[in-house]
């Protein structure tokens, strides 16, 4: 079986976690894989699209094409699988309106014409089902073999509240600034660490600013005592796939999150982390973890167990391989 993966960039987190980390496993199953990029001049695109017939499957990750461009891709490709892990049919958080006619037209046109769709969570699946009955959920997954458990949960000294993510999601953390100010007045030994390429400003709480690095990601995650994933409660956020939480859990760090979308499935409130909506809830739940290193350790280990049970590459790759095989063999 030959599969052509169409992606936007090898650096994009969604590509790294939903495509690239699966490739060695698929190759071991005898699948011949190749990576191709969406970007380029029209002539380059057409030259590539004209080669699609040599592949059994064209696997498109996340990109929305215009109806005209996708019509040509559909004409040339034998089979098409579409994978998405964001609510790309809506505008992102913070927009005046979440609804976008152009996005919905592109999404619906493509969904009606792909052979199979793979959604990152149940909400995204529900968005695709009206247009195509052949939709399955494969969550964004972590390779636990890349991470080891955090060993030391401080009983004395500083406590690090951590957040790791892209600058486009920093706006969610911004909403917690009053929470951080209140917590720092109660617990002067805490600090906030942000791993990103941009950072919050005007905070009284000590702030560690750390540029993200693939080589240092595990070390940064282990430096956290508590991991955060705040979100808005909007349509875009319901499409989020909980990567931050899975990263925290992979090293045994408990999480406090907004219970929106898949966050409610990954974080079991009071078991491997806490849910929080209002500022008072965030302050209360983070305070509980600050005061109890034993609870942090227990919840972190339960979080790691959650990853191993349903959100690891090893548990998800058989599902992906099965879908590839089914689509390739379908007449």
Structural write-up:
The chain has 331 residues and is of the alpha/beta class. The chain folds into 2 domains: 2-141 and 312-329, Rossmann fold, CATH 3.40.50.2000; 144-310, Glycogen Phosphorylase B (Rossmann fold). Helices cover 40% and strands 17% of the residues. The protein has 15 helices and 12 strands. The chain has helices at residues 13-18, 23-28, 42-49, 67-76, 101-111, 122-128, 170-174, 177-186, 217-222, 235-238, 243-250, 263-266, 279-291, 293-310, 313-329, and strands at residues 2-7, 32-37, 57-61, 80-84, 116-119, 135-137, 159-164, 190-195, 207-210, 226-229, 255-257, 273-275. It has a 6-stranded parallel sheet. A 6-stranded parallel sheet has the order 9-8-7-10-11-12, with helices on both faces. Strand 3, helix 4 and strand 4 form a beta-alpha-beta unit. Helix 8 packs parallel to helix 13 (279-291). The longest helix is centred in the last third of the chain and has 18 residues, at 293-310. The chain is elongated and about 65 Å long. The two termini are 15 Å apart.
């Amino acid at each position: 079986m030959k599969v052509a993966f169409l992606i936007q960039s090898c650096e994009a987190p969604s590509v790294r976690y939903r495509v690239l980390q699966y490739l060695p496993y698929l190759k071991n199953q005898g699948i011949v894989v190749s990576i191709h990029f969406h970007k380029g001049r029209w002539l380059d695109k057409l030259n590539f699209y004209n080669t699609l017939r040599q592949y059994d499957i064209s696997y498109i990750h996340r990109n929305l094409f215009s109806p005209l461009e996708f019509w040509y891709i559909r004409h040339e490709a034998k089979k098409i699988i579409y994978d998405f892990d964001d609510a790309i049919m809506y505008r992102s958080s913070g927009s005046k309106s979440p609804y976008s006619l152009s996005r919905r037209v592109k999404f619906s046109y493509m969904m009606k014409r792909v052979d199979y769709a793979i959604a990152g969570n149940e909400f995204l699946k529900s968005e695709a089902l009206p247009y195509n009955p052949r939709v399955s959920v494969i969550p964004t997954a972590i390779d636990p073999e890349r991470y080891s458990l955090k060993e030391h949960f401080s009983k004395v000294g500083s406590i690090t509240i951590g957040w790791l993510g892209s600058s486009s999601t920093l706006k969610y953390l911004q909403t917690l600034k009053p929470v951080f100010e209140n917590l720092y007045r109660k617990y002067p030994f805490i600090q906030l660490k942000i791993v990103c390429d941009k950072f919050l400003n005007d905070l009284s709480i000590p702030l560690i600013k750390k540029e993200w690095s693939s080589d240092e990601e595990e070390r940064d995650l282990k430096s956290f005592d508590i991991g955060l994933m705040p979100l808005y409660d909007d349509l875009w956020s319901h499409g989020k796939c909980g990567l931050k939480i899975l990263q925290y859990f992979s090293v045994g760090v408990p999480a406090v999150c907004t219970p929106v979308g898949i966050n409610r499935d990954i974080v079991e409130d009071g078991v491997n982390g806490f849910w929080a909506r209002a500022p008072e809830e965030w302050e209360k739940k983070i305070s509980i973890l600050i005061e109890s290193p034993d609870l942090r350790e227990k919840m972190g280990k339960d979080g790691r167990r959650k990853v191993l049970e349903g959100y690891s590459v090893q548990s998800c790759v058989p599902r992906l391989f099965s879908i590839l095989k089914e689509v390739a063999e379908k007449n």
